[in-house]
């Protein structure tokens, strides 16, 4: 049991060396790493609730209970998406200690080596290259045994793993998909390679999921980083309070400083203010961070002036360049009595397995619904590259991800009342589409306008059609012959005609909830980024962004690991500046 403050009146101080906004994937890393120096005082402010005692956070198999709307989510919705037949899309982000690492599907894929080399090229800072970032990967995570203790030889490469606080384990309960997936990659003439370890630097091929699960329980940033640091007297954590804006305090070296942080419990509560003497670190996520910056008068002058915000720093990149991963479910009816469909459509069955989990941490609830995944590139001779530059990091990284789930997972269509199903999710992991986060008003408790522009690029449309065909091709291989019976669902009921597939994709595509890059890094002196490569906000003194908003490009994979690594290096950049 940890002790959080929930009201400003409870705080033992109002002045700290550092104030970190957001106890999520990145913020907990920053708070924990900075307070390793016992002389350094840190206040961590989180809008959400405690993670403790919430089954849907702790139990891997209950992850779908959080999505897309629940008490531990921000419960955003996008504006109507033009390329998705004007459908508004639920936009899930964690509003709980641990942030989205407390509610995501727990896949830890640190991305290809070329991903980080791309960061270095885009920012002009070699410190973001894999040669330097590898140390942070090793420092951040470690491989642990699966919950059922099965032999993992041939399913993972222990030599590429580190020694950090984030545990990574393979699926901890028997699953009928894994053997078939492996067989499909190794059958004579197989066109889909097997990837021994997605965290080895090359991600192409199918492999076994590595999840942030320890002893059958989710291990988010709150448990891995924050809980071990909570006994430190130099760390105070305030939850259930929303930061409403940053207040300019002075000018340092000709630049405005925003060292006061204003916050409140809700829209009707009085505002409170705390002060940082060294830095304020925004780790409020790809939506919260640009919203706070804009509410503080840091952003596009023309847009902010139009809604009544007094602009102090004209930084047009704030809230721009939003990148996200479109996802589309391909459903197949299967001949199996080992799927998890009944768990998700029958609460009595779910409760039985939950009781088993609580008793001895065994059964289906010890694992995420996603059991296997693969990354693939478009063919080098694809004619789409005659008209579009390749948005992927390059060698070792994919344009497409296929994710296998041993049940019908509901995104757009609810599960049928009967039957057993396989879902193969198709994800565009190197999207060309780009959107925005904009203020809806000057009210900090009003959600911003979110427009990820999903599938707006012809490149993304082409890629998701190719992904649907890949999914069909994969489950048509011989190892699936006695398992897969037929296609079904919006995509499955569509033939192979390109126009028909695209029309169906517009109805079946949603988001995998990976918004990134809304306050992205760019070289010093450039105008296309909100922050410098050292994560300092351009035109401002003493203000950093350390979260997914800061990434210069969306990772061609699940972004949790990349954000962890960003936070590890970001913490070191702060320590180096202040000689901590």
From TrEMBL:
Domain of life: Eukaryota
Residues that, per the record, bind FAD: 96, 243, 513-514, 548
One GO MF term: aryl-alcohol oxidase activity
Keywords: FAD, Flavoprotein
Family recorded in the similarity comment: Belongs to the GMC oxidoreductase family.
Active site (catalytic residues): 514, 558
Top enzyme class: oxidoreductase
Cofactor(s) annotated in UniProt: FAD
Protein known as: Aryl Alcohol Oxidase
EC number(s) stated in the UniProt entry for this protein: 1.1.3.7
Glucose-methanol-choline oxidoreductase N-terminal domain: residues covered: 285-299
